[in-house]
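Lab meeting minutes (informal)
Scribe: AK
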Amino acid sequence: MLPIIACSVFALAIIVERFWTLRPQRVMPKHLVAQIWHWQKKNQLDEKRILGIRDSSPLGRVLATGLLNRHYDREIMKESIEEAGRHVVHDLERFINTLGTIAAITPLLGLLGTVVGMIKVFSVITSVGVGDPGELAGGISTALLTTAAGITVAIPSLAFYRFFRRRIEALVISMEREAIKLVEVMHNRKTRSGEVPSQAA
């Protein structure tokens, strides 16, 4: 039971931390590309503003990397954004695999506890006989509790693991859209002069 309890504590901590970290408004502030476009049009996009963008959010880190390379070729700017994006995705996925591991091992820990408990019960039967059936049933019940505890921890852990995976995928797709939009804005491709780019949903 002790390893299962420890896993439950770790799982709860990860779930709370990831809920806070993966909030859409924290990862992708609204109208960030539009603000960058506004500064660019007014020639106010200096290094200080770019550093502020970088420190504001995960999306800001990706866009700031592109902005630092905006004077280079379009492909170079895209490559720098993709490289920064890989690091950001790695940070977004922090602890997620640990949560998946907890979801996988806690039922096995519960089963192991039950097997060990049943071995002890049958060892007692071998040594002193059946004795009191009530006590024997109580020992079996106690052994089975570990399996129940393991499954109880595993089910929400697996559910939140899949939930966070889906949220990260959605955030990454949205960040890719915003990054592409930034490249087009900086290189005057798809955004017409005087048109403020809209924020992706």
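Next up, CB showed the second protein from the same session:
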Amino acid sequence: MTLDALRGALRDALVQATGQGGDPAHDLAHADRVWRHAETIAHGEGMEASRVLVAAVYLHDLVTLPKDHPKRAQAATLSATAAGPVLEALGLSRAEIAAARHAIEAHSFSGETVPQTPEAMVLHDADRLEALGAIGIARCFAVSGALGRSLFDQNDPFAHGRAADDSRFALDHFAVKLLRLPETFLTATGKRLAEGRAAAMRRYLADLAGELGSPPPGW
């Protein structure tokens, strides 16, 4: 099976497993964007886009759980486990399946598995790139809205005089996690792209501060 044919089969498998609806931040469109990021990062690192990489990308969110779910930290492990039978049915070898499952398990921000292979490092960075830039802003507010969280604290939107709390305010997630992500990237290409997207988010925050009549944050 060619890489393009495998990608098509994986897209179909993802839709069949998760449906077209659900979480808009972890849907088929998200997987397609992560694949584009993965291709870009792999090329920048002198790698070929492999069957292992495309398999890991399209099944990395095979099992999705809300951010406030008690088993959220296990979602990547659950996805890796669920990916096995899918990849076996598509004809991947045992070695390819094991490598894809490792990459899936190791991509998680909240998990404990450290990426050990080039494919795992590329997926790790490609998925985190989705949390940054303009699309990262959109996804942050989409997820926070689904959880019923306020956009920001109207009295102190940028947490100048309080501790940032992203369990209550969407904007606080920029300080708690999102703008810290670039330092966690594992590839030089991914880190360069991440820093550019973080700069775009800071420009947004400066514009928002102007509209709110608030001092800009130091995030």
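CB comment: DSSP finds nine helices and no strands in the chain.
No objections, moving on.
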